[in-house]
Write a structure and sequence with these properties.
This protein is mostly helical and 336 residues long. The protein has 14 helices and no strands. It is globular and about 60 Å long.
């Protein structure tokens, strides 16, 4: 009966994803009829105005948003298991702050001197580099620090350091540069193309595949490090893998879309509440599909709520995620 329930929940989640994909393709500053969207997608029509909007603007954005939500949710789930802490997300280790600092150096401190305009892909490279530097530091520290709580605190402190430097840069930057940086910092899936989606997919798929080999160690780790050791788990290697996978998943999303808040923190709990299990073999795909659905729903709200003005994605995800976190804190039975 449990297996049947899991299958039904997955089928419903996939059906919701398909529905949201079509609805997202329909709604926007240019309304496209539902049946027209279905026809455009099914027949791959690209030579009409509506076809160009669907295939070149909306579909890559929707798919990128869904993949971002899946990555953040999986990263959050891994870190919550690793730290055995329910209020941990992908950005708690300073990954987002490292990416933000590097973008601030490019946009505010003039590292792009000589460029008339900063290409978005250049910003993505800068954010990737910043996130990667933080990942390397965390991996080096993880091999020397045995206590996961200490590693968590160090990650938080690194985030505060990056935030402090970023704040200083904002103080001395020109107003027009600050505006552009603040908009990036709020996160957005606007302007993303198939190229960015393919990069995100190809870079992340290997990380997702690697999870197939650690789902059993993850379940063992839930019962404590000592129990995991008795099961033959290499704790040092396992810790490094968790930090690398979760950090790179979050770093990939931040590099292209900016910081996206609360998805990685709230969605893993939604998966646990929906599927009523602690088996990570089930929770990883569950968190991925729920994260995808929540993110594209939030992106839809951000696009159409005050259309043609688009709200920052982090504002919507925070409005969605903060009440869930408060609920979890008030009902400690749902925590890890």
């Amino acid at each position: 009966m449990k297996q049947l329930r899991y299958y039904m929940l997955f089928i419903c989640s996939v059906a919701i994803f398909i529905f949201l994909l079509i609805v997202n393709s329909t709604l926007g500053s240019v309304h496209i009829p539902f049946n027209e969207v279905c026809k455009i997608i099914y027949l791959h029509i690209t030579d009409s105005t509506f076809g160009s909007i669907v295939w070149n603007i909306r579909l890559p954005r929707i798919l990128f948003a869904s993949l971002s939500g899946a990555y953040l949710a999986i990263g959050g789930l891994l870190l919550q298991v690793f730290f055995r802490n329910p209020i941990v997300g992908p950005y708690v280790l300073g990954i987002s702050s490292g990416a933000t600092l590097m973008v601030a150096l490019v946009m505010l401190a003039g590292l792009s001197v000589g460029l008339m305009a900063i290409h978005p892909f250049f910003l993505s490279l800068a954010a990737s580099f910043g996130a990667f530097c933080v990942v390397i530091i965390l991996v080096l520290l993880s091999s020397k620090i045995k206590d996961v709580v200490t590693l968590l605190i160090i990650g938080l402190m690194m985030g505060y350091l990056c935030y402090a430097i970023t704040s200083i840069l904002i103080t001395f930057a020109a107003k027009e540069k600050v505006k552009g940086f603040v908009l990036w910092e709020m996160g957005s899936f606007s302007g993303l193309t198939w190229k960015e989606f393919y990069i995100l997919f190809l870079a992340g798929i290997y990380l997702i595949i690697s999870l197939c080999f650690i789902k059993k160690p993850l379940n063992a780790f839930l019962l404590g490090e000592e129990y995991a050791k008795t099961m033959g788990l290499n704790i040092k290697l396992f810790r490094n893998l968790i930090v690398i996978i979760s950090s790179l998943l979050a770093g990939l999303v931040t590099a292209f879309a900016g910081p996206v808040a609360f998805i990685g923190l709230a969605v893993p709990h939604m998966a646990r509440l929906s599927f009523k299990t602690s088996d990570n073999g089930i929770l990883i795909p569950a968190a991925a599909i729920i994260g995808a659905n929540v993110t594209i729903l939030c992106d839809l709200i951000a696009r159409i709520l005050f259309s043609p003005i688009e709200l920052p994605i982090s504002a919507i995800t925070a409005l969605f995620g903060a009440p869930i976190v408060i609920f979890l804190l008030l009902n400690r039975r749902t925590l890890i």
